[in-house]
């Protein structure tokens, strides 16, 4: 970083520089692990950051973003989308049924379907609005009592109900491994589960471990702090 930049230039340059580094790391991981880079999407996680911090990433060509709160996304993305209509916004945080309508309006992909009730609410809104919102099922691979996600045991029935009873477009699986455990077994488990269910997409890996996730088959890595800095 140069020394003569003004204060308001610094954050933007940092964000675009960080983004560049993350893209390089993804490309390198793809090369190292024999993955086709076209099959790995970077979901740039902009939660807690204002539009002003997000703009440098958009200007650098990033188009896929993740937010974890419906309300927060509603506050900043409609205006950003006017400038960048080809943005693809993913919901990566828990959803409540009473926010399903807003979520279907705002998001292009919902990664956090984890129970029948929320799946039904999304399906109903999609039907009403004649809109297709591809979804991922979030799996609680670590069987953590406080964590969102369907259990491994209940996953097949949920996928089945989404596909056949609700007509929801289920594209893949998503997980957030326990933060204090090695991640590889969780990524490998998610990969196997998706394979068994005939699902193509795997959302796994964050700033600290996206390379490992790519090695184990991730098609979507969700990276926040490595791009925007700590929250
Ligand atoms: C915040 C968040 C991320 C990004 O985490 P970083 O460690 O900042 O990269 C990824 N996935 C989910 C579900 C998150 O809530």
From TrEMBL:
Database matches in InterPro entries: Ala_racemase_N (IPR001608), PLP-binding_barrel (IPR029066), PyrdxlP_homeostasis (IPR011078)
Top-rank taxon: Bacteria
Needed co-factor(s): pyridoxal 5'-phosphate
Pfam families: Ala_racemase_N
CDD domains per the UniProt record, alphabetical: PLPDE_III_YBL036c_like
HAMAP family: PLP_homeostasis (MF_02087)
Record's function text: Pyridoxal 5'-phosphate (PLP)-binding protein, which is involved in PLP homeostasis.
Name of the molecule in the record: Pyridoxal phosphate homeostasis protein
């Amino acid at each position: 970083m140069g020394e003569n930049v003004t204060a308001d230039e610094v954050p933007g340059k940092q964000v675009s520089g960080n983004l560049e580094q993350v893209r390089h790391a993804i490309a390198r991981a793809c090369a190292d692990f024999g993955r086709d880079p076209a099959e790995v999407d970077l979901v740039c996680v902009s939660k807690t950051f204002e539009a002003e911090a997000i703009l440098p990433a958009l200007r650098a060509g990033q188009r896929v973003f993740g937010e974890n709160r419906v309300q927060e996304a509603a506050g900043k993305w409609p205006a950003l989308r006017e400038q960048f209509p080809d943005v693809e916004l993913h919901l990566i945080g828990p959803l409540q049924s009473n926010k399903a309508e807003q979520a279907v309006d705002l998001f292009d992909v919902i990664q956090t379907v984890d129970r029948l009730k929320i799946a039904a609410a999304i399906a109903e809104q999609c039907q009403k609005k004649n809109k297709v919102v591809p979804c991922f099922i979030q799996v609680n691979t670590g069987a953590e009592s406080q964590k969102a996600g369907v259990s491994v045991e209940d996953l097949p029935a949920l996928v089945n109900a989404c596909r056949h009873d609700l007509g929801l477009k289920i594209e893949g699986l998503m997980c957030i491994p326990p933060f204090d455990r090695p991640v590889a077994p969780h990524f490998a488990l998610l990969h196997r589960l998706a394979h068994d269910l005939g699902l193509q997409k795997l959302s796994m890996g964050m700033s600290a471990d996206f390379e490992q996730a790519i090695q184990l088959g991730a098609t979507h890595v969700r990276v926040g702090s490595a791009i925007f800095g700590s929250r």
